[in-house]
Amino acid sequence: MQPTVLAAGLGKCNARLPKLRAAGLLLFGLTSFAFVAPAPIRILQVPSKFRQGFRPRLAGQTKEPRRPRMALKAVDGGFDVLTQLLTLSLAMSPAVIYDFLPGPAGIPIPVDDGQDLEAIPSEGEGQDMAVDGADARRGGHKRATDSGAPSPTRARGSGADPGITLAAIRDLLQEQTRSLMDSHQQDLLDLKTATFKELTGIKKDVRKHSDFIEQLRDSQEKMEDRLKNLEQRGQGSVATTTSEAGRPNLMILGGWPQDTQKDTLLGELDGCLHQLNLQGTFEDVFCTGPRRGFAMAFVAMQPSETGVQLKRRMITIAQQIQNANIQAPSMESSRTLKATLGKSKHERLISNHTGKTKRLILTISPTSLGAVETEYSAGNVWFHSKLVASATRPGPHTGCLPGKPERSWLDAVLLAKLLKTTQALAETASCQADPYQMESLSTGVNSDVTADELRAVCKLLPPTLLPVIMLGHFNTKLRWTDALDPQGDLRPTEARSEYVLSELGNVGLQMKAPTKAQWDTPTSRPRRTKVQGHQIDGGAYKNCRLSPLLIEVDSFKQIGGDHDRISCDFPLRTGESTPPPRAITRPRYVTGKLPSLDKVDQKTLQDLAKKCTAPRPGLRYRDPSEVKDLYAKAKQTGAEHDWKVAHKARRKAQEDWRNTRNQRAADGHWQSYRSLKNPGGNEWTVYFVEAAEEAKQEPKRWTVQHFRTLFQKTEPRDPPRWNKDIDTGNHFTIEDLRQALHKGKTNKAVGEDLVSFELISALCEDDATEQALLSWMERLRCGEALPREWLRTVVTLLPKSDKPRGPKDLRPISVGASAAKVFGTMLLRRTRRYIRPAGASQCAHNGRQTADYLHAAIKSFSLDTEWHLGLSWCRIDIQKAFDTLARDRTLQLLRDNLPPEMFLEYRCWERLFYEGTALLKTPWGDEEIPQGRGIRQGSVESPFLFSIAIEMALKTATEHAEWPKTIPSIPDLPLAELLYMDDTLLWAASRDDMITKYNILKAELAKWGLRVNPEKTSYYHSPYSTTPGDITLDGQVIKPATNMTVFGIPLLTPLKPSTLMDTAMSKASKKFYGNRHIFLSRAPLKGKLRTFRTLVGGSALWYCSAVSPSNQALSGMNTLQLELLAKTIGFRRKSDETWLDFRTRSMRGARHVLHSHQMERWSTIWLQRFWDYKGHIARALDRDSPPASSLMDSVRTLEWWTEKQRDGIRHPGQFFPYHTNEEKALNRAAGGTPWRQAARDATRWAQCKETWVNSMDVAWASGRQLAIGP
């Protein structure tokens, strides 16, 4: 049976279709059709609109069944459309098709069941459709064949064949719609592209024609002017044609010195012409510049005078002037008035060729004037009777150098032989004869010629990264706009402007606008009166930063031309490198055996540093010997193959070196790990230079001036005098020296004297030298002058951010002499004994730490959360604290606290505070500046002295009468101020109290030379605050922040303990992924675990002792530890493994490795550290000056709450009592006694740690794993 296919354009159907029956395959489409069939197909033409008789003619071909696509050609209205559509394959048995109606956008939709279509009529039976009547069966009923047997197709297939479904038809129509839409969109895009391309061509043609029309208009105007001049000419008229080509009536009158003023020259020339009675012969006499040695004149043309007659008359006038021998007052004694006829451009080029050749000969051989013969009219030059140059005769051979005039030449070979010199010297001299090689754009031509000339000029520019600047006369009107660039962008006003912009842009050049005030300033100054000039001169640049162009108005008078001069400024490197650094501060190590010394001083140490130490070598890559041999061979042979082999060997060696370094770092080699850190480098200087240019500053001068002002003392120094008894005190002992050496650090930068700490330590290994060094230190304590090198510091600049915007964003770090650090440490150990903490606020003293600061801050937020105190917090930033601290005020603090036996030590501090010199190291060179105030960052004494200075300033402020002493909502709170160095955190009951505290503290800090920076001050208030809103400090409005950041940890009310460690977890993840090349390297697992514990574990747990543990936070820390540890171990997902199975396997494997290597979980470490810190807090409460953490932790404890509950005190709202639960757990771990009482016994407290950990730690596993898997 031949399959029959019915194709109907349902997209245009507006009548209901009956049910159709067909044997074979069937496709519904919108406007095009495609089908496949296993046998030849008989196509029936079915009208899409039955009533109108519209019949598309379809032509197709059979495709293979396995390829469900077919190209089909539909002929509709004379247009051929080729489409490829998806097909819908039906079973070979008769199928049932439901009626469709056209829906939105022409997409057919099913309506309801209709009548079945009887058998399709044969090919000769016509086009009418037979429709069933009453015999019609409903769709979906089983239908038998005409013979009553079941369908063979149904028998061969499965009984579950669904046939055509509504979903399949819908999918087909949607896909066909998408295909058509994509096709139409692509056609529209192609049409749009072609249209724009055509419009661009039309626009270009229109511009060209507009240019032609403009030139024709100009020519017409010129012709009209010439006709008007001819009409005005009559008897005795002196009117001339000023636009005639060549100006044949031009005459040159000269004889004056070269730089004669224009007015003097014209006045004397007028007098000479009166003497010769020739004043009426010339119609115009002028000079081309303010100072010249000649003048130009136009001879008045007579009516009906031909060119030959004019030239004869001009020759006669010139001879008359020459023969008169008239001398003007300004002329030299040997000169008289001369006259010659004006020449054309070609004649001038020929005469210039002659003059330049003559000058060349006399430049090389000044005594050969008598051997030179010239003919200026023909360009011929003879030297020793030999023709060496010409502009009219043919050259003797092809090796002659061409000149500017056409057919001109110079025989450099013959000339060199006659001059007895080399040809290269002769050619060089000939080039030097015209030092300015310029190109000019032709005038009076159309835009195409201008574009071609400009393109030829731009082709001369080779590819380069060097700065390029192009100044010139662009022969077009330049107009500027600030629409795209505030500094000005070229706005093309004619075709020539667009060509200029396009050709310059092709080679990377960018036009630079003048200052905005000169955008309309003309640069051309026509000599004709009442003619306005235009701005046609400009500049372009690339690979450099150009300042706005400056049009020097009226400079044409000085130049002597018809254009004003334009100028610009730009930075240009002259080829000189940055001056070498004055001090090399790299770490040094001892290279040789040191002598035994009986006397030590600064000069001895410096001599030993130069002889016996050297800069420590870096760990950068160096070519091994085999790679060096390969490169030596490649350089010797020059063969391409040898160079490739050498490059390949170097790449492999570099890769091996990197892998080895990563493995060593993973194994715990810290020097290799430090070398892996990204070096600071000078990348920040790029952004700094950009900021300097925006501020119109030179980077080095800007930086030096800033720090000069910063280090300069603001008022004369008045050091406080010692007002106590004078006592020599105690001598330095050998134990003092050894403890100072023990506190020193190795592998650190050295000062300008090159003395390293390694050198001093190595010297002290010898007993005699150690005793000599101690004697020197004692002499310095007793009053010997300090070495000058100790007061000279090398200041290195470190950026505070990745993109500094000025010198304020740079932090100065001082590097001083190592011997001075040893001496300062010995002084500091003695001074610390007598300067005790002034209160609990400063957390930077001995016995205090950052955990105290953080714990006290967290406790203030937890109290506000629990009791709704309505507090406000303010973190104050002190501007340039170390660098601006008043030295005299610090000395006064030392004097008031030191006893009489510390008199000599006080005098030592006084000498160390003398004004010194700072060697400021910048990326642009070094500079010395005086340093009269501040404490040198990097010196051993700077942290201690600064901390006590800030503490005393805060203590004085809190003793002020107006300082808010208590907080009404919690009067038992013992502390409302916190310090860690200069990090100041204040909290108060209201916004007004905070402003009062800020103003008092600001005034007190000013006495110490310190200034508060309100721009970096942050403010936060509780949601329970009675005074919400902004706060105004020093006129600066500060909006409340969403949280208060303390050491990078966001704190806010209500406080959620489970989120306090989120910052630590984030930092641990960053640390791991920042060093993943170490942890994922192929190094031994044991070493990687040790490195993991130090780097990642240290980042995750650095402040855990100050945070109360919670079950959620403990579990989160352990999960993160296992995830990162699984990556370190190297677990990989198998191809047949799901992600859930992989995670289960990797986490269990990481837990197994953690246990087998006896590594503690992060939750365990957290609980251990928290227990130890709690004991420290309880014991520190018994000190004479307890830290802030002890005081804050003793506020509203469990004992207090148990007692106050009897009085009926209740919390103002609901909250989770995690502090109460924490204290109950601590009491249980301490054996039922109050934990603070148990913590006072350190031994008993340590014994209870294991009980605390076992009771609080999360389980190792869920218990669902029965054994350790593979």
TrEMBL record:
Transmembrane segments: 20-41
Region (Disordered): 119-162, 514-533
Domain (Reverse transcriptase) ranges: 779-1051
CDD domains listed in its UniProt record: RT_nLTR_like (cd01650)
Keywords attached to this entry: Membrane, Transmembrane, Transmembrane helix
Xref: InterPro entries: DNA/RNA_pol_sf, Rev_trsase/Diguanyl_cyclase, RT_dom
Domain of life: Eukaryota
Protein name per its UniProtKB record: Retrovirus-related Pol polyprotein from type-2 retrotransposable element R2DM
Gene designation: pol
